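User: Predict the complex.
Assistant: Input components as received:
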Amino acid sequence: MSRTEISGAPSPTRDELYETAIRESGRALDRLAAGYEADPEKRHDLRQDIHLQLWRSFEVFDGRCSLKTWTFRVAHNTAVSYVNRERRRNTRLVSLEEIERTAPGEDGEPDIDRRRALHKLSRLIRQLKPLDRQIVISYLEDMDMAAIAEITGLTPANIGMKIHRIKNVLSARFLEEKRHA
Amino acid sequence: MLETKDPGTIWRDQPEEKAMVNLEQIVNRRTEELTSSTRSEILMSVGAALLFVAVMAWRFAPIHDPLLEGGFAAVIAWVVISLYRFRRRIWRRDPSRPDAIAAPCLEYYRAQLEQRRDHLRDAWLWHGPLFLACMGLIAILMGKAFSGPERLRDVLPLIVLLAVWTGFGLIRRYRQARELQREIDEIDVA
């Protein structure tokens, strides 16, 4: 049964779906790409790839999940394919658990400059294995546990555990000394 | 006093990307890339096979030997079958269907890992040339074309290079496949 038959209203075309998705999540997709690739030129390629796959995917969008979930699934999966292709050139990727076990080192220094903090955060994300990276990015995008579970396919319990770890890691690395007058 | 700076805000407030994405340009560029990589991959495969057969033929073919000719035919058949069998990987950059890319990430990622692992373990693709090279060498040694060690000595560097390269390649691929399998197991446990 088609979407038109279910809702009674004409279903949006692939281009319309794509435009809506980009209007709603375009900036978030750019940030997602930044979580996977540091080099600006390569990141632009990755962004293009994400947009292409997204546009392709709307051919079979069935409305069984929200447009946002669909968009992020496609974007993350495209980025994972990209990471796998680039794997040989990448340094070893680590899990959240390994990062949690590692002492923050100089990363624990106070962060006054916002740009430096973003750089540090992006570097931390890019060290992670793809699945952990997906969860961290989704968490930073302020998505709730259910949405992250729907995107990744992990159980909410697993997501909860991972988010707990993410909070530990982030708070250990983003402590700021507040100066009082 | 220690206070946590909100990483979520830092992440979401990052500067906008300057370069805009244009869908039409993407499709055009991808099409060009696809055409270009397709051509180079086909030419490389055909070229490598022809080089191998040419070197062997140059040294041994003047003498008609059914074993040797059979060996050449087997190499060419292997190339043709490989090209047909892996046509999707060769002709299309991304063989995944549009609906596969929208699967839950865990499922998709696992499938990607499996696909890569299976590719690394593919006996036809990786053991095939080694098997053919061994059979070719046996055919040469047993056949009429083998008049003495002189001709064999000429092609020995090529055979040794091929054997060393294949051996290192097999070890590297097995290691990579093992690492991927470990990651698949980690996903299964999660």
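The longest helix of chain B spans residues 149-189.
Let me know if you want any component modeled separately.
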